[in-house]
């Protein structure tokens, strides 16, 4: 009974002492083995991971800085391209204005040449018409004078003098009329 009483006194949750000691020694051996073999490997792997992560972060920061630099370079190139485009557009506008001015001057010159040629042609036609008219009027004047006088004025010298006097008188009247018109216009 004493044995039963002794057994009853033992806690069923606590293992017997020899098993507890053997278990602790086995645990210490396992922990020692893990500390000697696995813990350095685990620390090594963790250190490599940390280095890889830090290296990756440094690479990412470097890549981000490089990307930022490339973006700044791109923006600078874009600004230069816009500036060049604006400059080219301005130059084209200036060339266009210069070309238009040059074409206007050329057109004015051609117009002046055409007008001068037209005036010269009109003056030549006027002189030809005046000469033809002078002959026709002279012939009519001679015929009329011959009928009025009753004698023939067929003599060419007499005819020329008579025609010249008549036409000179007409020219004087035309000049006086033109001078009178100019004087009235200036008033």
Shape: rod-shaped
| Helix share, percent | over 70%
Number of helices: 3
Strand portion: under 5%
The structural class is mainly alpha
What is the H-and-E element order?
HHH
Distance between the termini: 167 Å
Work out the count of structural domains: 1
Give the mean pLDDT.
83
Biggest beta sheet summary: none
Q: Count every beta strand, where a strand is a DSSP E run of 2 or more residues.
A: 0
Query: Can you tell me the residue ranges where pLDDT is under 50 for at least 5 consecutive residues?
Result: none
Cα radius of gyration in angstroms? 65 Å
How do the strands and helices of this protein lay out in sequence?
Blueprint: H1 2-9, H2 17-149, H3 156-186
Helix pairs in contact: 2-3
């Amino acid at each position: 009974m004493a044995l039963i009483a002794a057994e009853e006194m033992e806690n069923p949750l606590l293992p017997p002492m020899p098993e507890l000691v053997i278990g602790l020694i086995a645990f210490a051996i396992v922990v020692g083995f893990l500390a000697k073999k696995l813990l350095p490997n685990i620390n090594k792997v963790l250190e490599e991971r940390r280095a890889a992560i830090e290296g990756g972060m440094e690479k990412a920061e470097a890549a981000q800085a490089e990307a930022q630099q490339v973006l700044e370079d791109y923006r600078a190139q874009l600004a230069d391209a816009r500036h060049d485009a604006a400059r080219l557009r301005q130059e084209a506008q200036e060339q266009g204005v210069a070309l238009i001015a040059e074409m206007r001057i050329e057109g004015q010159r051609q117009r002046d040449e055409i007008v001068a040629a037209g005036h010269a042609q009109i003056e030549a036609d006027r002189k030809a018409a005046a000469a033809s008219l002078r002959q026709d009027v002279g012939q009519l004047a001679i015929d009329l004078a011959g009928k009025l006088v009753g004698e023939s004025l067929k003599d060419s010298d007499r005819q020329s003098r008579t025609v010249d006097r008549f036409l000179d008188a007409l020219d004087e009247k035309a000049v006086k009329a033109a001078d009178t018109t100019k004087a009235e216009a200036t008033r």
